[in-house]
């Protein structure tokens, strides 16, 4: 028995963010497939009745339909012991990186859709912006490593790591390699080794899983 | 004495979101002016050292630099008694609307920049998307009104109302009038009457303040 429902497209990076977090938390959800490519189901009247702006994923939690990966991750993290720090500084840092995942790093998500699915958009510009966002993450993690932690916030994995992970893990889909990002590669190895980790097509396994 | 610092541009809608919330909370922040138009200061090395992706506003809170309005609002709401519900359903609803403010409603924010400041972009497309996002908010508030509440979540104002307010209040800047949005107009009246409300150029006063 579960009260969670996830409206999900298996090839969508934002949906994977939530599938990954559910699995790391050991929580089950009833899955409802939404055929975005090539079905265009995100624009159907039935889906728009649940998600008026056509945003995926949609997570039903505590009786509420929550639209978008950032909101779904935050709602799932709320009330956990370790994935969302309660101290003001830790909470603020996680909020910062969740916004980064939905803001500057969204260029990476859009670039992937252009390369993989032929969506319209500024292919080169978004690829460049996406790579610049990965560079900001790399610089942060390189400093964190000097502080003795491989994670984005604090001493263990938080929902921030979950939000940021897919864009880097899938960057080869939009033709940005991992060679120039040693700190992100180290972090990715830690992510792949977390209990409950699940992968998706396009993520290299690094021999970890 | 305050530990809060806000890097702020007075004409920026996202900065106003945070100024408004600070004022509603009765909290002081040391203000640091960032001259975006016409100065382009968001791209200066000094500002990029604080906000690597050039995102405004930046709020320093609990010793942490938080970039972006959504993250700053969430960090400020954390630990308040009423602005961020703690029950799972209320928390999930607020998370949903914060993501909406930074997602579909961001078209409104971008449309305003094109109309006011001549930024490049798809003027008509973004104006249309912004108006569609306001329509989703109108439909939600019309239903809420039938339930007896004028607020987006629960029985009183939350950080969701603060995040959503500026895009509607400033919509005339991008040539979308308020006539077609009676529920949003009613809600705006309530917002303007909140203790601590502060306005910004472009927001009609409705005779309330």
From TrEMBL, chains A, B:
Superkingdom of the source species? Bacteria
Instruction: Please tell me whether the keyword Transferase is annotated for this protein.
Output: yes
- GO molecular function term, any single one: transferase activity
Q: Which Pfam families match?
A: GST_C, GST_N_3
From the record, what ranges are coiled-coil?
A: none
Q: Which UniProt keywords apply?
A: Transferase
PROSITE patterns for this protein = GST_CTER (PS50405)
Lipid metabolism as UniProt keyword? no
Q: Taking every annotated instance into account, which residue ranges of this chain make up the domain GST C-terminal?
A: 87-208
User: Which InterPro entries does this chain map to?
Assistant: Glutathione-S-Trfase_C-like, Glutathione-S-Trfase_C_sf, Glutathione_S-Trfase_N, GST_C, Thioredoxin-like_sf
- Entries under SUPFAM superfamilies matching the protein: GST C-terminal domain-like, Thioredoxin-like
Question: What is the official name of this protein in its record?
Answer: Glutathione S-transferase family protein
Task: Name the source organism.
Answer: Gluconacetobacter azotocaptans
